[in-house]
Amino acid sequence: MRNPRYHLFTILFSITLSSFSSVCKAQWYDPDKVNKKAGAVYGKAYEEAVAGKYRSAIQHIDEALAIDPKLVDGYLSRAGIYANLKKYDSSVIDFEKAFILDSVYSLNYLLPYSISLAGCGKFQQALDAVNHFLANDKLNSQSIKAGNYRKSTYEFAVNYEKTHPVKNYQFAPVNLGDSINSSALEYYPSLTIDGSKMVFTRRINSDEDFYESDLINGTWSKAYPLPGKVNTVFNEGAQCISQDGTWIIFAGCNYPDGQGSCDLYISFKTKNGWSEAENLGPIVNTDFWESSPSLSPDKRDLYFASAMGGGFGGRDIWVTHRSPTGKWSRPENLGAAVNTSGDEGSPFMHADNETLYFNSNGRPGYGSTDLYFTKKVTDTSWLEAENLGYPINTIDDEGSLIVAADGKTAYYASDRGEGKGGLDLYSFILREDIRPLKTLWVKGKVFDKKTQEGLPCTVELINLKTRQTVSRLKTDEDGNYLVTLPVGRDYAFTVNRKDYLFFSEHFSLSQNPADSVFYKDIPLQPLEAGAAIVLNNIFFDTKKADLKPESVAELDKVVMLMNDNPKLKIEIRGYTDNVGQAKDNLTLSINRAKAVVDYLQSKSNLTGRITYKGFGADKPVADNTTETGRAQNRRTELTVISN
Known about the structure:
By secondary structure, the chain is an alpha+beta fold. The strands form eight sheets. Strands 2, 3, 4, 5 and 6 form a five-stranded antiparallel β-sheet that branches. Strand 21 (401-403) and strand 22 form a beta hairpin. Helix 10 (552-564) crosses helix 11. The longest helix is centred in the first third of the chain and has 23 residues, at 141-163. The radius of gyration is 32 Å and the shape is elongated. The termini are far apart.
């Protein structure tokens, strides 16, 4: 049933707009003739409000309204104060009381009333209200401009609701509690890949430092300052911790060695805590502002916001790539699918290494700064960014948002009324349509096949369907690695290290469930005569010797191996299963080995260094009575002749 007060307000509204000139005569409220005692108390409230003492101002207004319940200015002023405090529900109630008392006197307040309605998520009512406001032909140009701007945001919100039905979704942020939040400001959370460690920024007075909390048996531990040398007397903020928990990259402002006002710095986890921060240098940092870093899960790409020249607007999102030698490349702008003529910031790359969340004030939205997401198509192209929608986005500024590896748990900072003090950290469940890809974990160790000792090196993972590298990560000093990958896909794993044969193998992970762990230890064979590897990612059609396009990535690894070791001599050996005639199998194996050599020769001059041979169904490595065994026997091998 419709609220009677709202019904009465709607009637008054329609009368006002249909015959403004005649209704003007019906105005009864005169601010110069209010109850003197109520007016005196209200005057004190006005002074308190101007001074920013909102709570005291509300108390005085309450007193004035107790003396004169028809003090229209009291309701309008209290409505404005509640709006400043983001208590939009209370603001709407007071606006509507004022309209009921005297809709003509209150007519000019239709615009702030519409804003408070939108603050409550009542966008259609807000649109109706602002349309009534704009119907007033006595508005000045500034009011018309402000009204049309709000109208565009309400129209966006109404259309978004129509095109993004929420079904049974409920937005229910949960405060992370006293162990993390305090009476100070907490913001900019970042997580390790397993969700067990959170690092965030806490600002006490004007000093920003990093704090850490650990998730133990489902409960966050009491946050403590990061040990070591990363926190200083200067301001550290807007940090991200690498998903393996070994790096922190952050914005350091007004540091003595800075390139500009705020630069990007890196600190490494050591046995004695976090190391003293190092400036990322003049290739990445400029004379302008750099902040809000976010590392890709493999630590190969660093996304950040900067006001440097050459972008689309004030602040854009850029990416720099880390080379195998550890050097960062010159930053590249993410382009028009992400950046606008306004400001973009707070990028966050999810564990799927494809979905990027960020904020912007340059796109259609709810007003101020909204949160958006996009997905990476290639290393240089992105899908057009999409708004995350209400109630994640509101009419107020939205800051940063991160999403855990599970793809559904989000964390953000908010100054919601039930907080511990100022900005607090909250978690909530994302709507399904704005979630990143589900991921699985891949972990293991790279080691010397002969000595069993761990080998630090680079592990590259390639999407077999697109042939694009989805992750290129470095192991730790003991050869251990950990990475997340989107589910529903098959991958090739390749490892290269000087003085070793490369490792290459493909895995069908498309059926592995989300959040599961796939373990793969990787043995590397020293580069010596007799060493051999199966080229697992060489593909042919049945009974044919034509290389399939999916084989190119693997063969290019062989070319790289030969170029890096100019004295290396190898033989490519082809094998088949035992299905069919032995003579045909032998011919097929020879032709397939030759096809591999022909491709390698087309990419590099390997004359005198490479030979080939076919063995047909001889030398099986598995039982030919099963399809799995026959598949293993149909193989291409690389054997070292000399080095």
